[in-house]
Amino acid sequence: MIARAFARTQLALAAWGTAALLPAAAVAQTGAPVDLTLPGAPASAVPAITAAVPGQLSNAAALAPFLAKLANGAPGGVLSVVQIGDSHTAGDMISQGLRAALQARLGNGGRGMMPAGKPYQGYLTWGVTARQSADWQGNALFGPQRTAMGALLGFSGFTQTTTMPAATMSLTADSPATRFTRFTLCGLTGPEAGAVTVTFDGVPAEPISFSAQAPGAMCFVRTSAVPVTQATVATLDTRPVSLTAWETRTGTPGAIVANLGVVGARAMHLARADDTVAGAELAAARPDLVILAFGTNEGFDPALGLAETEAVLRSAVARVRRMAGADVPILLVGPPDAASSRAIVALPALPETRDCGAGWAVPGHLAQMRMLEKRLATALGLGFWDWQGAMGGPCTTMAWVAQGLQRGDHVHFTRDGGRMIGGGLAADLFAAASTLPPPPRPR
Fold first, then answer.
1. Residue 314 sits in the same domain as residue 359
2. Of 368, 338, 334, which is closest to residue 351 (Cα–Cα)?
3. CA 410/CA 287 separation, integer angstroms
4. For the whole model, what pTM was predicted?
5. pLDDT tens digit string along 317-329?
6. Which of 50, 125, 352, 380 could disulfide-link 367, Cβ–Cβ 3.0 to 4.6 Å?
7. Are 264 and 85 in contact (CB under 8 A)?
8. Where would I find the SGNH hydrolase-type esterase domain in this sequence (predicted)?
């Protein structure tokens, strides 16, 4: 039920160009309805999909610091990846596939950073279950929760605020493998900010006060001597508490992958994040690699402006570099092979649009976004991973949907599809790491 509810949320928000423009565009000047459905055509035979197509990573040299840690081990034993993106990231299908593949080779370092609590109905988490009482009011970078003058936001995408005493949030490990010894909680600070208690399996840990002389943001760490199953946060009084993110780590060497995504978001929505809040989150996550996974919603926009989008991406990369550190590599992940059944989105007149048959077409703007991101990766010293190429190229979405790897909207992915894509990304990263020269021997 949770997965179905999340899918409905994604369909409502993710590719807004598919729906938001239809009421006005679907009426001719005479007022008569216009059929915007692409003409049907017999679907061609589609190949069986058994794995992601390897070799989709380009400009791998830009990821050298991360690849060295991937090959030789990260200092401190934890390799941290932070993925920031849209509904593909929010749904955690692809990022979970990457997480599982990295942890299978490197060990389970923890779940990684997530938005605090359960920010919307249908919110899905892998390995842990998030719950909260009804006393929290949310703000988001994008979507129906968005309030321009609401609580400050970070790259986690959500901030939840309450002034009710005994308001609670809990994070529970779903299995022994995701139990944790380290718990990080991020929130807004200020002169009027309140405090929370933290308990591990019912045992009190040191409380956290968000009171500070000036407004800002901070992440606090609480540890347990033994692995715990549940962390519970509860407010102490009526002073406001605003939480943005939390993270768990196992205390053992291995990989962690944070998924910080908002359904329907574009790269431009990152500008709504506050520098102080986003900086505190990145400082707590301590990424060895940042993945920026945008382009699907941009590519489904019939009014896409490439010059404006390039400026947005350049700005986003510059901010992440400034906050995470210039030595932290960034990987751009291009949009997947996705299709629309509506001409107003697919734009058949564009030379880049590909007709897949059966009334579906890959929008030309998706190809333009992919080419833009690949070009920017070279210009800005970033890695680039071709998601569409990993699926097999244009119109292979038909095979992915037919085999239950991609949902019927030809945009989002199932659990098996996410495992395949995330595993393909991990395989390309490991392959690139294997080509690095060996580290110098100590003298």
1. yes
2. 368
3. 31
4. 0.90
5. 999 999 999 999 9
6. 352
7. no
8. 253-417
